[in-house]
Amino acid sequence: MDIFERITRNRGPIGQYQTAGHGYFTFPKLEGELSPRMKFRGKEVLNWSLNNYLGLGNHPEVRKADAAGAAEYGMAYPMGARMMSGQTRKHEELEQKLAAFVRKEDAFLLNYGYQGMASIIDAVTSRNDVIVYDSEAHACILDGMRMSLAKRFVFPHNDMKNLETQLGRAVKRAAEQGGGVLLITEGVFGMAGDLGNLRAIAELKDRFDFRLLVDDAHGFGTMGASGMGTGEHYGVQDKIDLYFSTFAKAMAGIGAFVASKKDVVDYLRYNMRSQTYAKSLPMPMVIGALKRLELLQTRPELRQNLWKVVSALQSGLKQSGFDIGKTESPVTPVYMHGGLIEATNLILDLRENFNIFCSMVIYPVVPKGDILLRLIPTSMHTLDDVSETIEAFNKCRSKLEAGTYRTETFQDISAMRS
Fold this sequence. Notes:
By secondary structure, the chain is α/β, with parallel strands linked by helices. It folds into two domains: 3-54 and 300-416, Alpha-Beta Complex (Aspartate Aminotransferase, domain 1), CATH 3.90.1150; 60-298, Type I PLP-dependent aspartate aminotransferase-like (Major domain) (Aspartate Aminotransferase, domain 2). It contains 16 helices and 14 strands. α3 (60-73) packs antiparallel against α12, α13 (300-319) runs parallel beside α15 (383-402) and α14 crosses α15.
């Protein structure tokens, strides 16, 4: 079969909804200033779908730093990959400050989080090594393992007893092959908001020989007394061998970093193909990241206000009888039950009649019959925003339980595109 014919016939698990959902449920256009109130299809909505935890995306000092960096350097400098012609003192300064903040000897600045994580796994593992990973690992971790030649063992999400079994198998297999073991998990799991059990995993290092790689994309800047991340929250930051995070969440920017011992970071600098063969991060983004990191460290009120909103939202939802799972982070899932038609009509009602914008997750990401509404609180939200949202959710749940969304005809979004 011709390749184009095959992909035209089979659009994929998400792409199958393209005709009805494009521009509304998928690839929606949110316009205006980054804030809890933005424009969607020409009208204002209360937005719970921005990974802008600390509100830095539109902070005046950040915008000033971004603009100054662009004015001085443009968006092209430095040209070339870091190894060849793209190195600057500012890139090195950002790496040094990131390493100091997360209490590691050194850090390596990466262009993007997704490609960075995939490339780390590929760089540090060989065909003789064994990877042990959480079943709920992010797609970037899964893709990194696909690139790696290492053998893989998976443990059910946060199942420490099963993890011990998999580590036992992994250590034995690695010893037979003359390799080592890499355990990969996340600090905060971005869909459900629960935490990787880093304390229990760290304790297993006394019994099993392995290195620990933690993807803390949603934990960096939000978790821990200083915002250092989930390792600080659990008091085990020193037990994390490779600490990774992205700038796309709390830092509200572009880029990522990995931190570890100096000799390990030096190895990554010379062996991560995604960085060796990619253009250096543009100077305005580096200068902007330095300002974001400064505010993250010196403005604790940003994180404090975030958690005030998180507490009000999550406690209010629970008091109203909503199932928000096991979240211990700002990520706030709301679980309901229904099929595709009910889910789409529920979101239509929220957006069109209550002016609430949040993300909807359905099968195959969650089991059939489940609906997950994912809310991302930020320090810019208010307690009034929380009250408005919970009131709207209560009304929509009543309609869902009464069968209103099940009996209505699904509205084809293709006719509503703007």
